[in-house]
Structures are given as structure tokens and as C-alpha cells.
Amino acid sequence: MIKPDAVKAGNIGNILQMINAAGFRIVAMKYLNISRQQAEKFYEVHAERPFYGELTQFMSSGPIVAAILEKDNAVADFRKLIGATNPAQAEEGTIRKKYAASVGENAVHGSDSDENAAIEGNFFFSGLERF
Ligand code: CMP
Question: What are the structural domains of the chain?
Fold first, then answer.
């Protein structure tokens, strides 16, 4: 996902360009708003965390871009490309280092396992929307 902060800042194109340059294939993509309830569902694994309210409010505060990306070793390579959750700790050249402002508003989300990538892909896309 490209999160509301990066969409608002006009960085969709820059981020997609980095994703493309890193060798990912975009197999599905959409621009949409999610409701508070949908954000709560997407991040339900974090329901007990102190930042859950802030996170779900933020994720429903404006449009996002959701995409399914394909590549060998995609989960690990995408996490490398986006950098640490907290942009202050992200390496130079990563998406979060370049475009994120804080741990809460950190520009992008990437799945943390193949299993979660499948779950998260199914959250946003039907079978008809993939190719
Ligand atoms: P993401 O990769 O989308 O997965 C969970 C999100 O929770 C994470 O990125 C951060 O944006 C957010 N998050 C993690 N820790 C904190 C925190 N301490 N305060 C606010 N948000 C956080």
C-alpha cells in the first residue's frame, strides 16, 4: 500500500517508479479510500497495540494505493526497498527514508510473509482483478 501521507504529498509516481526500478511487476493496483472499519479489519493483528487507534484513523484519513507485486523473493526484497518501519532508522535510498515523516505516517506498507501477502491481496482484490 501507498499510505495517505504519501498520496497527499504527491509521491505516488515517485514510489511506483522506485518499485518498478527494483524489478517488481505490478499485477493488480487500485486507488481507493478505506473506512475506519476496513482499516481496523486490515490491521486486526495490531488490535491490542497502543497505536491501533491512531493507525486505523490515519489509514482511513485519505486515499491510498493498494497493489499486488510479483518478483522472486518479493516479500524480503520489498521490505528491503521500503526500509525500516521508523523512517529515522531507514537506510539511505529506501522509500521510507525518502518519503516518510514518522513511524505512524510512514508512506508505505509491505506484507511481512507470503502467507500475509495472500491474505492482504485477497482483502483488496477479487480473482477477476488480477492477471
Ligand atoms: P505497517 O508496515 O503498515 O504495519 C503496521 C503499522 O503500524 C506500521 O507500518 C506503522 O505505520 C504503524 N506503527 C508501528 N509502530 C507504531 C508506533 N509506535 N506509533 C504509531 N504507529 C506505529
Answer: 4-124 (3.30.70.141)
